[in-house]
Every structure is written in structure tokens, then in C-alpha cells.
Amino acid sequence: MTTVEERAESGGRGVSEEVLRGFFREMLLIRRFEEKVEDRFRAGELPGFLHVAIGQEATATGVCAALAREDVIASTHRAHGHAIAKGTPIERIMAELYGKVEGCSKGYGGSMHLYDVEVGNLGANAVVGGGLPGIVGAALAFQMRGEKRVAVAFFGDGATNTGAFHESMNLAQLWKVPAIMVLENNGWAESTPSTQHLPLPVDELGKRALAYGMKLIEADGQDVEAVYLATLAARDHALSGKGPVLLHLRTHRLTGHFVGDPQVYRDKDALKEERDTKDPIRLLRARLEIGDDELAAMDAEVTAEVEASVEFAKAGTDPNPEDALKYVYA
Amino acid sequence: MPELTYREAVRETLGKALREDESVFIMGEDIAEMGGSMAVTQGLFEEFGAGRVRNTPISEMAIVGSGIGAAIQGMRPIVEIMYEDFLTISMEQLVNQAAKHRTMSGGQVKVPLTIRTQGGAGWSPGAQHAQQLEAWFVHVPGLKVVFASTPEDVRGLLWSAIYDDNPVVFFEHRTLYPIKGEVPDELEPIPLGKARVHREGTDVTVVATGRLVHESLQAAEEAEKDGISVEVVDPRTLLPLDEEAIVGSVRKTTRCVTAHEAVTRGGFGGELAAVIQHGAFDWLDAPIERVGAAFAPLAFAPGMEQWAVPHAADVLDAIRRTVARA
Q: Which of A3, A97, B71, B144 could join B113 via S-S bond, C-beta 3.0 to 4.6 A?
């Protein structure tokens, strides 16, 4: 067996408190952004179909912090956190959600298709598993040209049942391309719980890497430091020429599948307990011993940033309707 | 002018692109040591090695999808889908990803990917190895669709497909691989979106693709014996379509037959008929006739297969029907 299971140690491995506070701030920014998105959708200002990743901020922040700017990611329908963490200014993301020219996809993409190629975001994908094959190809291009870059696919546990996942895992490992397959395992395929879509216990989903002889690295997806360290290790492995990594992050979606989802399928007490015990922001706050005043000050800052992004977006430019044809062909 | 088979013309183009351009590579099932199931890529593995002539697993989604990812990163991948029937497995990547990345990103990315494939009846493979599915892809904004019918065309069009900055689905026809034809000394790119008039005529225009170009030329010879002058036009590129050339031809002849091997219903002939009736309504002297395969999964027994797909005689019948109208 060439594959070794590894659990990244959480804590005490040289991540400074300053860095962790930076992570905390970014996670709080993502949370407030997501809450504002829910709020503005309910107010009827945002068109389309929106998915927030409240509860999953540590995977976005921890993974992207460990990547270089020239590394690329493919995101999912639950994309806002990934886009923020990879470096797109929030006002450009908010402008995209409002369908404005100033948006990161110029109003062509929307929430499920956030792109920002300049910072390495190759796009969020609204087809579950749809982004994985492209990431194998991006990594192949880096390998063929001898570039020290990794390509990173985000996807959830639901995606691990698609053909695209299995074909991509197989090909990536076969060609040993520098890719990281980031499994954000929140235990839900939309409204369907893991007990109804996985033949494995949800915590053992990383075992799927073994079938491909792929390196498996696992971390607690609610612990941003563990995610960060695990991603650093995954990146080193991917760049070493030994092949890709399945980075299995167990996480928790503390809201519905989409904004407005009444979650009739979900046990309310269990959800409350998850919110009380699995919130990555609350967990990191306790660890860093951030007091009420400090939190209030930081919260006021990020909330002001989010408010400013809404103002920026609302003041943005509506695209000319006929520009719908502009980018059909290069 | 030298002569090449259709197969050699494809191979020569692939070899030239691989030789001249480091960003070009090819991948697909059985294309390396074996040289492809249609022997198109023979010799390329020996010349360019396993890094640029890549055998893949039987994973059509991953073949097309990894081609997309590499293309977005600045490569010019050419992927081979062994039979166009298997394009169905890669549809998600073709339709939702390759075709849409550019628009979804607001123009930030381009996908210079060529997807070569082949199909066609005439050898009794049954229902899953001989379909003609080109019309499906014409319905997808963001893709380009090419169907080449001669050695000269396949060479020049494939080059243009490789160097187009958009995903191009490139159809070859299995029964055309051994046909020979004259080609220019040097490869001359043929722009996508330009039709070819194979034969000029004055009484009826046959707009034909793939194998049916050759069947239509035969039918035209026969018709001429009856004093019917037939023009045969091959669009060559189905998307974008050279509407001007096609409509112009029908305005001249006032009658039209469309001909392809794909089943008639929902086939590309329907799109041609719509374009032609709109562009040449006041010129038409007869309803547009459509020639295509019978609406059935292709049956195995040679007699049934031959009956189901169209031949020169079917085109000739259609020509006669149009000229029989007052």
C-alpha cells in the first residue's frame, strides 16, 4: 500500500497567534458576508439561487491561506467563502450577486459562477462534481510545463458519488498531477443525509482515496489551523511529484442547502447542538480568548466592510441586455 | 498535387501541430502504441512520446474535462473520443463546462480545445457504435461544430479547429478514412464557417454533410443523365454556419434537398430547412426535401442497416421529388 493515512495535528505546530487572528477576521468577514447575502435575498434584492456556507468558513480560509496566489481553485455552488479566501475583494463578489458589470464575473455568472482568474479562481461550478475534471487538466498543464503550482478542487460529500469524481481521482493519481482534491464533507447531499447517500460512515469517506492509491490527508474542518497545516502538507506532497492528495475535511453546514430552505428534513435539536458545538468561529474565538470588546470592535469593522460592499454593488452598472451575446465565443 | 487518404490527412495535421507547437498534445483511449482504434494516430506516439500522445483510461468525462482544464491554462489539447456515441458520457463537460466557461466568467477565460470523434454506419456495428449526433452540439452556444468530408477539407479544417480559441467538436466519418483525395502541397487552413460548393448546378441544391456529400455527388451524376442540374454544397462547419453560401445557392436553383446520415427527425437538415425557407422563401419552387436515416436505433443485420441509412438513391429520389413540383 503506497497510501498512508495521516491526520494533521491540530495546534502547537508553529502557526502564530497573529496568523490565527488573521484567519479569525477573515472567517468573521465571510460569516457576515453570508448573513448579509441571506438578508438581501429575503429582502428581494438578489436574483437567482443562493447557497451560503455558514459553518464551513474554516475550510475556505484554511485551505486558501496555504495556497500561493498562482495556485488555482475550482469552487462549488457554495462559493462565496472560497472566492473571498482566494483573494477577490468582497465588493466585487457582492456586485456579482447583484448582477452588475463591476462583479467578479461582470454579471454573467452570479453566485454559482464566481470567477476571478487573476487571483487563481477558475470559477465556481453549479454542477455537483463538474469542476473536478478541469482541475485535473489544469494540474496536468502545470506538470507538463514544469510549473510549481497546484490546482485545487473543492467539492462536498455529495460529489463523491458522481462519475466525475471517480474519473478525476483515477486520472489524477494515474498521471500524478499536482492537484489537491478538497473534500468538504458536511454530511449532506443537498437535503439527503449521508446515511442515505453513502455506504460508508460519513467520517470514513476519506477511504475513497485508498481505491485510487491516492495520498489521504484528513483534518477537522472546523479547526482552521488544522485545515491550514493539512493543506500545507498536501501542497508539499502534490508538488513533490508523488501525486495528488485527497484532503478530507469533516465540516458542518449550519444552515440549509439554499437560502430559504426550510430544512424540513433536519432534526432541529441536532442542528441546534451542531450550532452550539461546531461553529468554527466560536471555536477559534474560545481558543484565542477573544473578549467581548475585541470581538465587537472587529465585528464592527467587518460589518462596515460588508455594508460598503452592498452600497458598491447597488451603485454598480447594469449590463446592456444585448451584451448577453458578448462572450459566447472568443 | 499530392494525394492523401482522409485518415492520413488527419494524422498529418496532428503531427504538424505537435511538431510545431509545444502547447499541443493529444489524448484519448488507445491512441498511443495502438495508434487509435481507427489507426489515425499511428506513429505519433513513436515521434512525440508518452507525454504528448497520452493514452487515457476509459473515462470520457475526464478526457474532455481535463482537456478543458489544460486549455484554460494555455495549452491546445486535442482529445479523441473513440466513437461519437461515447460523447454522450462526456456531455456534462462539453455542454455545461467547455461551452459555458467563457460566458460564465465574463470573458476571463477561453477554452481552445478540439474534441475529435468519429462515427457512421456501413459496417454493421449495431446501435451504439455508428450514430451521427452532430446536430445535438449545434444546439449549444459556445461550441463550434465541424464535419469534414474530404481529405483536403479534413486537413485544413482540423488545423483551424486546433487554432480556434473555442471548443470545437470535430466529426470525422468512419467510412471516409480510406478515401483518397488531392491536397495542396502545404497544409492550407480552411476557415471555420465557410461552405464548399462541390459541384455547380442550376435546378436543385443538395446541402449535404459527411458521407452524404459523396452520396449526393453520385446522385447528382445520375440526375444529370435525366437532364437535372444539381449543385452540391457541403457546409463543412455546422456551427457557425455559412448561411450566405447556402441561401445564395438555393436562391439560384430554387429547390433544395438536405442530406445527412443522422436520423431525419431533429437532424441538422431541419435547421438548414429553417434557414433556407427564411432566407429564400420568395425563391423556393418546391418544399425542401430532407434525406436522413429512418427513425430507429440502428439495427445490426446488414440488410436492415443498409435500409435504414440513406444512400445516393435516396438523395436522387428526393431530387426528383423537388423537380417534379411545378
A: B71
Q: For residue A287, give the CATH number of its domain.
A: 3.40.50.970
Contact A34, A76 (CB under 8 A): no
CATH architecture assignment, domain B3-182: 3-Layer(aba) Sandwich (3.40)
- The total number of structural domains in chain A stands at 1
> Is A109 part of a structural domain of the chain?
yes
Residue A326 lies in a domain: no
The parent domain of residue A146 ranges over: 5-314
- pLDDT tens per residue across span A153-208: 999 999 999 999 999 999 999 999 999 999 999 999 999 999 999 999 999 999 99
Q: Is B209 on the interface with A (CB under 8 A)?
A: no
Question: What pTM was computed for the model?
Answer: 0.96
pLDDT digits (tens, 9 = 90+) for B65-104: 999 999 999 999 999 999 999 999 999 999 999 999 999 9
Q: Look at A171 and B66 and tell me if their CB atoms are within 8 Å.
A: yes
B101, B129, B173, B198: the catalytic one is: B129
Helices (H) and strands (E) in chain B, counts: 12, 14
Radius of gyration of chain A (CA): 19
Query: What backbone phi and psi angles, to 5 degrees, belong to B27?
Result: -150, 155
User: For residues B316 and B293, is the Cβ–Cβ distance under 8 A?
Assistant: no
From chain B, the residues in CB contact with A134 under 8 A are 65-66, 68-69, 72, 93, 97
**Given the residues B8, B12, B29, B60, the one annotated as active site:** B60
Question: Residue A4: which pLDDT band, with cuts at 50, 70 and 90?
Answer: very low
Can you give the pLDDT at residue A13?
55
Q: What's the CA gap between A73 and A117, in Å, rounded?
A: 9
Do the first three CATH levels of B3-182 and B196-324 match, i.e. the same topology? Answer: yes
The CATH number of B196-324 is 3.40.50.920
**For chain B, which residues make up each domain, given as ranges?**
3-182, 196-324
Asked if A113 lies within 8 A of B105 by C-beta distance, the reply is yes
Q: Which ranges of chain A does DSSP label H, i.e. alpha helix?
A: 17-42, 57-65, 80-86, 90-97, 132-145, 163-175, 194-197, 224-239, 268-278, 280-288, 292-314
Q: Do the chains contact at A328 and B72, CB–CB below 8 Å?
A: no
Partner B contacted by A167 (CB < 8 A)? yes
pLDDT tops 50 at residue A256: yes
Whether chain B has a CB inside 8 Å of the CB on A164: the answer is: yes
Instruction: Identify the bridge partners of residue A152 per DSSP, sorted by sequence position.
Output: A73, A180
A163 interfaces chain B, CB cutoff of 8 Å: yes
B60 is catalytic: yes
Listed in sequence order, the DSSP H helices in A187-279 are 194-197, 224-239, 268-278
Q: Is the ipTM of this complex over 0.85?
A: yes
- Annotated catalytic, B129? yes
Query: Is some CB atom of chain A closer than 8 A to the CB atom of B65?
Result: yes
pLDDT, tens digit, 9 for 90 and up, residues A193-214:
999 999 999 999 999 999 999 9
Residue A77 is assigned to a structural domain of this protein = yes
A140, A326, A327 member nearest B70 (Cβ): A140
